[in-house]
Write a structure and sequence with these properties.
Keywords: Amino-acid transport, Cell membrane, Membrane, Transmembrane, Transmembrane helix, Transport. One of its GO terms (cellular component) is plasma membrane. 75% of the residues lie in helices and 3% in strands. The chain is an all-alpha fold. The protein has a two-stranded antiparallel ribbon. Strand 1 and strand 2 form a beta hairpin.
């Protein structure tokens, strides 16, 4: 293992963590404030990637396509909340799971009908397609550094909104005492609508950032949704700070584990056994991390209450 390889994988882990944070931030807000299990959050991630990819190709300008795509993701969040999710918020969790799973099936099939099953082209913006030299022997893609910057910027913005604005105060209060907030004259349904739509836009932003790195196809949201739930559980339901710290931790554990687990096992159990056990262990590390955290802190790293 060389220093260049380690630093490269470390940055890749942070970049994955930032993508997970953008998905998990909206998920933890919806889960924490609304007590709503939204399995369709991965669909919103997928729709964001498709919207931005299509609008960038249509406009010929990445900035314009990104702005229009995020607005489209926000509008779709409003529409889905009003038409579907609002009718599930006061149902039990099983009905929420079944209802949002139905949304996954319907939206995924509609996207497949419109765009087909083949991956959609989403090239890296020309101005950000190069690489920069971070250290001798390490040329790192500019786009991945942009993702890191966007993630940190969004985290800072969310921290400010949640901790320094009236809306954030209502969100924090609604996550623990929704009946009290409603009794004080706050339209809790409108608050839920804003939180849900904003969460959908964050998921769309994550899809737009990940689009040039992964295959933009109808089931792309399924893969990230499970890991995003792990991030929410580890960080603590309803905690933006927890989602950020947990996402970076999960990204690093997953990336470094996949890169180096087999090599570390070679020193312990031999080359042939490590070759077989390494991939299996690396795929389990995130869930082992969750088990360890929950055994020590059942409410998560920054959770104020158990899930």
């Amino acid at each position: 293992m060389t220093a260049v390889l380690f630093v490269s994988q470390l940055l890749n882990g942070l970049q994955l963590g930032v993508i997970l944070f953008l998905v998990a931030a909206g998920l933890t807000l919806v889960f924490g404030v609304m007590d709503f299990i939204n399995l369709a959050h991965g669909v919103q991630y997928m729709l964001g990637a498709y919207l931005v990819a299509v609008l960038v190709a249509w406009s010929g300008n990445f900035a314009v396509g990104l702005l229009l795509g995020l607005l489209g993701a926000l509008v779709l969040g409003f529409v889905l909340e009003v038409l579907v999710f609002r009718h599930l918020t006061r149902r039990d969790h099983l009905e929420q799971v079944l209802g949002t799973f139905g949304v996954i099936l319907i939206v995924t099939e509609l996207v497949r009908i419109v765009f087909g099953s083949a991956p959609l082209a989403f090239p890296t913006p020309a101005a950000l397609a190069g690489s920069v030299t971070l250290m001798p022997g390490l040329n790192y893609p500019v786009w991945r550094l942009v993702i890191l910057g966007v993630g940190v910027g969004v985290a800072a913005l969310l921290w400010y909104l949640v901790n320094r604005t009236r809306l954030g105060m209502l969100v924090r209060a609604g996550s623990t005492h929704p009946e009290t907030v409603s009794a004080l004259g706050v339209d809790i349904d409108r608050l839920f609508l804003v939180v849900f739509a904003f969460g959908a836009m964050l998921a769309g932003l994550a899809g737009a950032m990940a689009g040039p790195l992964v295959s933009v196809e109808p089931t792309m949201g399924d893969r990230i949704l499970i890991v995003a739930f792990v991030v929410v559980v580890i960080g603590g339901i309803g905690s933006i700070k927890g989602a950020f710290v947990s996402a970076l931790l999960v990204g690093l554990v997953d990336t470094l584990g996949r890169a180096f687990a087999a090599d570390l096992l070679k020193a312990l159990i031999g080359k042939s056994a490590a070759a077989a056990a390494g991939p299996a262990l690396s795929s389990m590390l995130v869930y082992l991390l969750m088990a360890v955290v929950l055994s020590v802190r059942p409410s998560g790293l920054f959770g104020g209450r158990t899930a």
